[in-house]
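Weekly structure sync, notes
Attendees: PL (lead), two postdocs, one rotation student
Agenda item 3: pending single-chain targets
PL asked that the sequence for the first pending target be pasted directly into the notes so everyone works from the same version. It is reproduced below exactly as submitted, 282 residues in total.
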Amino acid sequence: MKRWFNIAFPAVIARVTEGYGFAVALSLILHVMMFGVLLVNWSADAHPKIAPPVPISAALVSLPEPAAKPQTVRKPAQSQVEQKRKEEAKRRAEAKKTAETKRKKAEQQRQEQERQRALALKREEERKKDELRKKEEAARERQELERRQREKAQKRKEQQALEQAMAMEQQALAAAQQLEHDQLLQAQYAALIKSLTSRYWSRPPSARNNMVAEIRISLSPFGDVLDITMLKSSGNDEFDRSVIQAIRRASPFSELKGLERRIFEQHFRRITFRFRPEDLVK
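Predicted structure, written out during the meeting:
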């Protein structure tokens, strides 16, 4: 019982002495006791009584050491405070560790997001570069194709121009040859007509050299004389009439039947002759 009292009483005292309430209560108790002592002394002085001496007996009582009470009272409080401090420090450490873990995790997530963002940007940049490269290659291929097409078109034009020039040259050569041939035929048939006319011409007495009678003859494809027109008189009617009579006597000029129709239409449908007396002399 005494051991329990020595253990429990300091604990009770420690709980009671926590805070300011115990000090206020103890102060009130002390004041009441002092007031009671003063009242008792005042009453004794008013009615003094003489009491016979009373024998006093003394006995040794062992009391708990006064120095042990503060230690037994303060130790549990300090232990609880230290325990609370340790628990608080532990909670703070755990909170700090948790916060540090969260911070590290957030930093890792941020770094991962930054890495993913940088990787996405790099992929996008590579995609754009690849797309730009493909566009440039397509543009170069298109330009090369257009250049080849232009070269082919230019060569085709040059070839066509060369062929056209050669064709024109051939046509010109053929035309020149045809013209030369036509002129030769024209000269031959004109000389033939003039020769036939001279066979049937009789020189009038009044005809003189250097007289010129210009006459236009209209012919049919069979050589028949359709019309004779005096374009320019020689100034001598007898010479002019003799020429016209000679033409009529010589017709038809059947040799014109073998002439090409083109040459006939171009040169002999209407033909002009200049007759001189000296040219008609046999």
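Discussion points:
- The CA atoms of residues 197 and 247 lie 5 Å apart.
- The mean pLDDT is 80.
Action: rotation student to compare against the earlier draft before next sync.
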